[in-house]
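Lab notebook: predicted structure, single chain.

Context: the supervisor wants predicted structures on file for every construct in the current expression panel, including those that have not yet been purified. This is the next one on the list. No modifications to the sequence; it matches the entry in the shared construct table.
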Amino acid sequence: MKTLVLLSLLLVSQSLAAQTIFFRESFDDVNFTQRGWYDNSTIPTTASEFHGSNGMAAEYIYLKGGTKAKGSAIRKQFAPSNSVYLSYWVKYSSNFVGSGKPYHPHEFHFTTNLNDKYVGPSWTKMTLYIEQNNGYPMLAFQDSQNIDTANIKKDLTSVSEFRSCGGCNGSSDGYPAGDCYKSGANWFNGKAWKSKVRTFADSGAYNKNQWHFIEAYFKLNSIAGGKGVADGTAQYWFDGELLINAQNVMFRTNANPTMMFNQFLIAPYIGDGSPVEQTMWIDDITVADSRITTSVNDGTESQLTIHPNPADDYFTVNLENFTNTSEIILTDILGNTVRRKRVELPLKQFVISTKELPNGVYFLRLLTENSEITTRRVVIMR
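Prediction complete. Output recorded below exactly as produced.
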């Protein structure tokens, strides 16, 4: 599987938090059903576009006027979890305009164990959305099957646990109540968070026609004393930059205490039809229970600096605030050591060559003779 490209400069705790990876998908061969994908048997791929040095990527082409990109939606289940993390690489054609409306295209979804494996993602006990609209990243959720239809647009948050959290029955947290509308026989809702930064633009660092690393993380809120507690999380990173950080979210009430995420869907969709023929490429998907968390507890966050970051063929580590003999260790995202060097201090700077290393996520660890450890996330991107 192709190595993930390094992204962002973040401080990390002495020991990186454990991460359970449910699955990875590189699209480098077409044996998708053998890897647990279902509902459809294949994903459209191309060898003309891919992230990294070789391989293939998923290619979703919207024909003008089409609602679904070529290649039907496909799903994969994983071990039920109270939290879910998604990372992937994405590139859009230079003419990509999405829906041309203030909604859609849908791209990625998660559903839960409270619905069956073939549930339609729009009307469920819970559906998460990771997508972008007009270049602006967006996270959203619906819990339309939880709506108390006898009390549409009435605030039930202090009255009943048998209510929706995504709209139609009031706001269960500090965010706006969300959409509430009827379509056919059913009521639907939707609560969303949108980035203030337009990251899929026509040029510059946010050029949509280049590969970018996207991460999203959701954590269900807890249940205590027979009631839902607004302590859930929804976050989105673009090339390591945190753009959406919704905390204290209410996703579920005590009516659904056993709810857990257990299904991932790729389902590109523009409800009103694509205004042009346009393409989205996806590569190197990871679905896990958490992001590698970042925190500092050793007091060195202002002392260890790395530049340039992102780097290409080398980067320089600033050591001027360290006085003890140190060991520098560079590991990849899987924990494999790729560089190890003993450094005699005091030494102001130290250069590390990365010419032979593929693009990916790496971690630089500094160990002093007093066993103190400082860890930084480094970006190598060419």
